[in-house]
Known about the structure:
Blueprint: H1 11-25, E1 30-31, H2 34-38, E2 58-60, H3 65-78, E3 82-85, E4 104-107, E5 114-118, E6 123-126, H4 132-141, E7 146-147, H5 158-163, H6 172-175, E8 181-187, E9 193-195, E10 229-236, E11 238-239, E12 243-251, H7 257-269, E13 277-280, H8 282-287, H9 297-303, H10 310-320, E14 325-333, H11 335-349, E15 355-359, E16 363-364, H12 369-374, E17 399-406, E18 409-411, H13 414-430, E19 436-437, E20 441-444, E21 447-450, E22 452-457, H14 460-480, H15 492-497, H16 501-517
Helix pairs in contact: 1-3, 7-11, 13-14
The structure holds flavin-adenine dinucleotide.
The site of flavin-adenine dinucleotide has 32 residues, from strand 3, helix 5 and strand 10.
Amino acid sequence: MSTKLPPGLDQGTFDLAIKEMAAVVGSEWVFTSADDIDLYRDPYSPRRGQPDESIPSGAVAPDDLEEVQAIMRIANKHRVPIYPVSTGRNLGYGGAAPVLSGSLVLDLKRMNRIIEVNEEQAYAIVEPGVSYFDLYRYLQDNKIRLWVDFPGPGWGSPMGNALDRGIGGYRYETSIHWTQHCGLEAVLANGDLVRTGMGAMPNAKTWPVFKYGLGPDIDGLFSQSNFGVVTKMGFRMTREPQALMSGTVIISRHSDIHKAIPVLRQLIDQDILRCAFGLMSPAVEDAYKLDYPEDGPFWKLMERTEQPSDAEYDAFFTAAGKPAWTALMTFMGVEEVILAQWATVKKWLGVIDGVSFQEMPITRFPLSEEQRANTPMKIWEPSLSAFAMGTRVQGWPNASAGHIFFSPIYPMTSHDILRARFEFTHVLRRHKLRTVDANMAVLADRYGGIIMGLRLTQDAEENARVRAAYLDLVKVGAELGYAEYRTHAMFMDDVVDTFSFNNHALLRLTETLKDAIDPNGIISAGRYGVWPKYLRKS
Ligand SMILES: Cc1cc2nc3c(=O)[nH]c(=O)nc-3n(C[C@H](O)[C@H](O)[C@H](O)COP(=O)(O)OP(=O)(O)OC[C@H]3O[C@@H](n4cnc5c(N)ncnc54)[C@H](O)[C@@H]3O)c2cc1C
């Protein structure tokens, strides 16, 4: 029996709802024991074991669309708050744990059918429980030469990641995964079923190829939100290129970022550079390692109250004896074209003093089995190598496995890149935190972002500092005009609060929609700050 009830629901009503749901899915797919519930807690929670940790009342795992509809009708009738997850691996942003403690997790992992992959038109239609690994294996097994853009961990799902507007990598057009979805199917709170885009026309041949359909474009209502349970989604996929190569640009002097960024923007605008890429500083990376001294020179710079000057940064990076910036870029397409693109990158950036370049050999497709096995960096193959970050693998004292992400976005200018790195690192120093991975600026299209992983430990006091620092980061970001693109379930209200234009007009609008579409407020209460009326603070 569950130990945590949804707020306002008595045990009898909850038990009745669970009994009715068990009759739909089979009792083996309804989970209310403490051991089972434990699996739906957030293993990366900064409040794990604390009184305010969000704990589900249970979980239910339907196998198909009709079962989802039946469960939603039962939940709506009994006012049971439901928290749908696809593969539920949203680690760093809240895991499978609901925003509202006591919600019942709707675990869609069993709905893992790949409904269609169309090689000719380069799309796939999937159910929520299909993981990146599943899709990749299907493509390999069926010798389909399409790729899907994926995030760090390959065990997540195209659907869950896209709905949370997750990001990946090899081309900036595909890197925000929500932009690659094309049409979706969702069950509403009352069990009604809706298809968006061209999918609203029965037998539409264009559902997964033309996104907009006719009339208002409502797909956005289903991402980072709580308006429905998404049960199918189309995805545009990338055709395997003829060739691929990667090259690294190495910029020795720190202040040359002011020259490099305008050139990089030109390279993007002229369609030379089409990948999202990270801008790293190896000497900063060193500072985040365990053996870097607490009073080391990088921290001294970051503890200053004012951003250091270009000359001071140059002196630090020269003394560190490492290049100030490196950027790994990927080019894919026709061999002659990618060679010309890389040559243009070298020519345009090569005018900056002290810039050098390293390139990897070209990979030509299709690969034989042997070539595939021997290729070291397979950017087309999902993996779990991202888990090499985190306190446990790096041997931190009191390590836990986890971290929470702080993910602000800013314009792609050298001024903003330096400002963001300084101000956010400064906040962490003020909170006496070293346990963070924060070196990388990801640049794509017209924006940059730092994905800061604030590492958690088993020390409750240190985790409390992480929580306080997070709130400070959000505040400082808002003052600078840098908002997060996505946030951890625990901090959604705080981040949404910074989107306050015209007395929170945007939130007031989404609340109005919420009241109309889900009047009993049963779906993902509180997700991205949208609470149902009965739980709304005035
Ligand atoms: C080391 C590490 C590296 C990471 N790197 C990246 C990265 O590179 N890029 C990135 O984007 N993320 C990254 N993450 C975060 C996270 O692991 C991924 O985003 C992951 O894909 C999300 O989990 P999921 O796909 O299982 O989504 P889920 O957990 O299933 O879904 C996410 C949320 O979307 C909503 N949702 C999901 N499915 C539905 C549905 N069917 N209907 C309605 N609402 C739904 C729910 O609120 C859910 O909580 C990283 C995490 C770690 C630990």
